[in-house]
Amino acid sequence: MSTVIRVHARPTFSLSPYLYMQFMEPLGATDGSLEAAWDHQRQDWRPDVVEAARCLAPTLMRFGGCVSSYYRWREGVGPRQRRRPMRNLLWGGMESNQIGTHEIVDFCRRVGAEPLFCVNFESDGRRPWARPADGRLRAAGPAEAAAWVAYCNQPGHAARIAHGAAAPLGLKLWQIGNETSYDRDGYDCDTAARRTVAFARAMRAADPELTLIAWGDSGWARRMLEIAGAHIDMLAFHHMFNPAWVTPETPLRDTAWRRDPEDTWRHLMDAWRQQDGKIRAMRAELAGLSVPLALTESHFALPGRSRCEVLSTWAAGVANARILNVHERHGDVLKIATLADFCGTTWQVNAVMIPMPHGRAFLMPVARVMALYRAHTGERALRVLAQPPDLDITASRTGDRVFLHVVNTRRTASVAAGLRVTGAAIQSGRVWEIAAPPETEIMAHNAELLAPVEKPLPVEGDWVFPPASVSAVELRLAPAAPRRDPGGTPRGTAAEPDGEDGC
User: Fold this and answer.
1) Domain 17-379, CATH number (from 1.10.10.10, 3.40.50.1000, 3.20.20.80, 3.20.70.20)
2) Which of 63-67, 286-290, 488-492, 496-500 has the lowest mean pLDDT?
3) How far is residue 193's CA from residue 226's CA, in Å, rounded to a whole number?
4) Containing H/E element for 33?
5) What distance in Å separates the CA atoms of residue 117 and residue 107, rounded to the nearest whole number?
6) Which of 152, 219, 266, 382 could hold 395 in an S-S bridge, CB 3.0 to 4.6 Å?
7) Which is the CATH superfamily of the domain at 4-11+381-493?
8) HSE-up (13 A, CA, CB side) for residue 334
9) 233-250 pLDDT tens trace
């Protein structure tokens, strides 16, 4: 086979397991979200939502978002009959607060995810949310954030114990500030940075072992580090990517995507460039500085009846797989990332959709590719030395296993390639493959259509990647044979010669 995929066996940088985060926010009247995921009769999470989340297997679950600007954590703990409902100032409607700190942590424990909470950062300086028309104060300062940390993490905390949790919850990841730079009426960068220092000091006084994430988007990153860098561990930024903001004639809007499948495919296959550009801009701003980045919210933001139904198609799944590859390529600095909101009833940006009032929760195409990559990825990145032009490939390794994430960007044509590892020999392999016509729309009745299919890799290592497919390839490397010098003395291990890259 003349076309070859070649990767180098020598690992480079470490890949964070948190590149598969999910983002959980109560979305009020615009989307059923958490209230729909909660069974108010049983006072527990819906079993089908838990099952879907286990299939998705997120490594990290972030609770917060814009709602953090008016969320008071004490309203969501304690006896249920005493919990005070909350007006959802951005998304509309009321939140019952039946889902609070303990329920979020419980959900994370059930699905194997680590929790990340976003604190109320003095309403991010937004006065309408700090004190809305009803006059109830919704802003909270460093003392309230520190009290939340203490409630969660300090041994012997009386209130937590009274609420049924004798052992500390052990929540070490916290975010200070959410989209703070997006509102001209909110804090400016210097004010936000100084307040970040105040929050960080108070929160670390309650627990010195926290990992704190500060807001650094919109050109704030370097100044935030100048003022607050000694007090924080990571910088957060967001990206809601909508090609219509750059190319108004894009078909990725409303129902325009249905008119010309080939044109829609072409635009979706180009969507990764926005995400790559945003991350590169963050890297450039921080040139010379070493700080991990956290993409704590990110998804398509396409206009439509419900954030555009094209996102229920397999074509969108393939596009999201390309963006996941972007995250891996920037994995030397990008340590937290997501591509979807967690769950809801209407928004197509959700990973899990919840049929209402009955039915079973199911995974959207974006969730299918996130789950596929999550199940078949290595601890350290590998360099891809050669690849066919129509395949988008990243590689990683753990021990003697090499993992490839392969996206066939051809809509109607397969791509054949041989698999080679420079510096090692392949002993065996398996392929987990998702392939479907790009226009296929996933709904409750055909939710399993995009389940990955496992296939054995031929001994010779040649493979045909179907049109519009996303594949996770797992290669097991053969044990290295000792090399011998002319005198017969072992001196290292035998390996395939390095390529022309000089490695």
Assistant:
1) 3.20.20.80
2) 496-500
3) 9
4) helix 33-37
5) 13
6) 382
7) Golgi alpha-mannosidase II (2.60.40.1180)
8) 28
9) 999 999 998 887 877 789
